[in-house]
């Protein structure tokens, strides 16, 4: 008679601001019985909560879920390797990462190359794989990080597990794109099961045929389980011994798709207390002074949605310096304080909105991406910015460029001049230019009339997966970094916006610079 090894799997969980959803998720995992719980990375960031607590917000939740095995995800490095080492030491489970190295050959963040678990009389070997796209979408990987070929790593480690460690079952816990999971599945037959993350989809992959149903059965080798505590997978693997060798039966996968939609689902009674403690922690640090404003900062909605302001310049300059782009756009609808912020000390509470706070500068945690934009698309975007609908929040605050606009002209013909750096772009005999532009994912996806960014005239260079939030960037550069944190983008951002004021706190003193001239 066959035994059954059961895995509870989830991946890419960022937010802890939905208590009911999280309570339902935790209830199911606490009732898992004799199952193995696996997390495929990206739990420590990014989110507004993680920006404030540097990833510590979710540690009590993860420990409460009784996780057995996890692998690192790219966003787990959002606060640097040293911070990740601190956070992983607080977890009650090991982290795997088998193909990500320092130049010295040492694995990143004290990761385990592989782990072996005895379960129901069987030896199960686990190892972790990073995607080769990590260096392009993770701002804080250690300098010189080497991501080894996932297939080569899988072949090498699975052989060690099978031939030297005598395991019965090999499980790859991965944080890479489905295309690379497929390559491992096809190129490494010794891997029995791949439990993956990075993609935020629910995926079951067997024999090259994706089956996206709540239940699936077959020769399944790849499973991904969605995102953000909304869904998880239960993978049942029948095993039995035949003449001393272990054989796998037909695998069954069940997906819980969206726990928020399940009527009258039981809830874990401990989650409300854990979230309450999190709120108290955030409240206790939210009054921490971050910087000194050397002048009033104009964030009035009626002004910032129609004209250049010094607060808009500050935010746009931070984003451009952080990503080192030619241009940065900050759509005015993302700036919500609606007041003149007086000269003086500003705290974390002033910068971000959290748990029903009001009047913060950046309450939404907008994701900031980078696109390579043609001059034609740039001009269309600027015309949209100064259209009659500008007061709905689409009006752009600018960095790296200046414009002249005549609001008396018809829509679509109001931009009179565009200069990027020292280069006159419009009017010009040629619009054959391209620029790297940082912007919110909201307008990059074509919302607020910015359809020019969602077509062929705007190639994505940094996607949502590799992006930072506006609040995350602001907190990162405003908080004094530890001495060993020497990331170039942080130093560049601080240099761009800090004035030399001789104060204990960083001094900012942004000005109106005629970036938007109304004629």
TrEMBL record:
Belongs to the 5'-nucleotidase family. PANTHER family: 5'-NUCLEOTIDASE-RELATED, PUTATIVE (AFU_ORTHOLOGUE AFUA_1G01160)-RELATED. Keywords: Hydrolase, Nucleotide-binding. Residues 305-454 form the 5'-Nucleotidase C-terminal domain. It comes from Gymnopus androsaceus JB14. GO terms for biological process: nucleotide catabolic process. It comes from the Eukaryota. Signal peptide: none annotated. This is Metallo-dependent phosphatase. GO terms for molecular function: hydrolase activity; nucleotide binding.
């Amino acid at each position: 008679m066959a035994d059954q090894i059961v895995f509870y799997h989830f991946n890419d969980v960022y937010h802890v601001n939905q208590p009911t959803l999280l309570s339902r998720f935790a209830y199911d995992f606490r009732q898992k019985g004799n199952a193995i719980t696996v997390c495929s990375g990206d739990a420590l960031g990014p989110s507004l909560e993680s920006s404030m607590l540097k990833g510590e917000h979710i540690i009590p939740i993860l420990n409460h879920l009784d996780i057995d095995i996890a692998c690192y995800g790219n966003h787990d490095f959002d606060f640097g390797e040293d911070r990740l080492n601190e956070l992983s030491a607080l977890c009650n489970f090991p982290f795997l990462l088998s193909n990500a190295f320092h130049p010295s050959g040492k694995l990143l963040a004290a990761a385990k190359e592989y782990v072996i678990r005895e379960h129901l009389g069987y030896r199960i070997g686990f190892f972790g794989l990073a995607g080769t796209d990590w260096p392009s979408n993770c701002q804080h990987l250690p300098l010189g990080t080497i991501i080894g070929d996932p297939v080569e790593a899988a072949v090498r480690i699975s052989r060690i597990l099978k031939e030297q460690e005598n395991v019965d079952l090999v499980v790859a816990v991965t944080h890479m794109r489905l295309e690379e999971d497929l390559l491992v599945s096809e190129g490494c037959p010794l891997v029995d099961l791949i439990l993956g993350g990075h993609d935020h989809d629910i995926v079951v992959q067997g024999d090259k045929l994706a089956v996206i149903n709540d239940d699936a059965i077959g020769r399944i080798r790849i499973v991904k389980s969605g995102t953000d505590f909304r869904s998880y997978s239960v993978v049942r693997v029948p095993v039995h011994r035949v003449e001393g060798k272990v054989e796998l039966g037909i695998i069954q996968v069940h997906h819980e798709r969206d726990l928020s939609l399940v009527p009258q689902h039981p809830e874990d009674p401990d989650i409300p207390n854990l979230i309450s403690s999190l709120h108290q922690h955030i409240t206790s640090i939210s009054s921490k002074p971050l910087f000194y404003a050397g002048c009033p900062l104009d964030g009035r909605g009626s002004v910032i949605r129609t004209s250049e302001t010094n607060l808009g310049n500050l935010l746009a300059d931070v984003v451009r310096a952080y990503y080192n782009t030619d241009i940065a756009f900050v759509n005015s609808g993302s700036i919500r304080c609606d007041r003149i912020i007086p000269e003086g000390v500003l705290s974390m509470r002033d910068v971000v909105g959290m748990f029903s706070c009001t009047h913060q500068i950046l309450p939404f945690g907008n994701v900031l991406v980078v696109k390579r934009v043609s001059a034609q698309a740039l001009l269309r975007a600027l015309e949209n910015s100064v259209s009659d609908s500008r007061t709905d929040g689409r009006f752009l605050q600018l960095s790296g460029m200046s414009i002249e606009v005549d609001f008396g002209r018809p829509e679509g013909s109001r931009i009179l001049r565009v200069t990027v750096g020292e280069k006159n772009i419009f009017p010009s005999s040629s619009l054959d230019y391209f620029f790297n532009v940082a912007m919110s994912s909201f307008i990059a996806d074509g919302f607020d009339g910015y359809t020019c960014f969602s077509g062929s005239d705007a190639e994505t260079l940094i996607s949502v997966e590799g992006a930072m939030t506006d609040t995350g960037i602001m907190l990162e550069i405003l908080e004094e970094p530890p001495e060993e944190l020497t990331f170039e983008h942080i130093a560049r951002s601080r240099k761009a916006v800090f004035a030399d004021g001789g104060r204990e706190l960083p001094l900012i003193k942004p000005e109106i610079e005629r970036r938007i001239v109304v004629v």
